[in-house]
Amino acid sequence: MKVDDSSPLGRHGPHVTYQTRYGKVRARISVPFNPQSDGQIAARSLFSEMTQLWPTITQKQRDGWTEAAKPDRSGFQLFVQVNVNRRLTGHEWAADAPPKTAPGPMPKVELLILPLAGKLRILFHCSSPWPTTVMLKASPPMSCGVSKCQIRRYLGVAGPVADGQVDFTEAYENVFGAILAGHKIFVWLTPVHNGHPGMEEDYFALTTAETERAVPEVFPGI
User: Where are any strands of DSSP class E within 62-152?
Assistant: First the structure.
């Protein structure tokens, strides 16, 4: 927002005033979330590591990756993607391209953000256990009016389904801080088998300031 020329430069509460070629402008200060979480650091490190490992495998192995990657990408791209996924999900990297096999169907999932035990918690309510390893990504708290979100950060591997639930509050707060009422949070689940990603599924939920209540039985009988 353009402001009067007499306005002083610098920070003023939640806003900052600065000089542009068109005059003075005031903008709201955005407080960044933590880009140095353990998951983010690990992912960036693994991309670098896999890039360095690509020249160390044999030409026959590189040809195998190139063949497996057809027709939409290079063997190098597939090698990096699969091996980063393998390492992030607790497996050793593979010099040979692993077979791409489809995991079983994903369960029905409901994303919930509820006041439990005196704080807001974020969790999945699932109709059955995960069929394979599932990677978990999420957005920072967004305005409730946002309908789509491209900002996502890796939180880790989704924990096992226990009593129909997967609570990942701690994993979320390690990256984005405490969950506060009055926001929308987007979450993405990606099943991974042999390092190959399956169909990504996306969810969102609104944070709420309701009084504490029990997790609803979204899928009766589980």
Answer: 109-116, 119-126, 133-138
User: Using omega within 30 degrees of 0 as the cis cutoff, is the peptide bond preceding 103 cis?
Assistant: no
Rounded Cα distance between 10 and 28, Å, is 12
Q: Looking at residue 45, what is its pLDDT?
A: 84
Annotate 19-35 with DSSP letters as a single string.
EETTEEEEEEPP----T
pLDDT at residue 132 is higher than 80:
yes
Give dist(CA 50, CA 137) in Å, integer.
21
Provide CATH 2.60.40 ranges for the chain.
Answer: 109-206
Compute the half-sphere exposure of residue 106: CA atoms within 13 Å on the CB side of its CA.
21
Paired tokens of 204: 């969102």
Q: Which CATH class is domain 109-206?
A: mainly beta
pLDDT of residue 116: 82
With beta carbons less than 8 A apart as the criterion, state whether 182 and 87 touch. no
Contact criterion met (CB below 8 Å) for 133 and 192: yes
From CA 152, how far away is CA 133, in angstroms rounded?
Answer: 19
Tokens of 81: 């993607």
107-127 tens-digit pLDDT: 999 999 988 878 899 999 999
Residue 185: its H or E element: strand 184-193
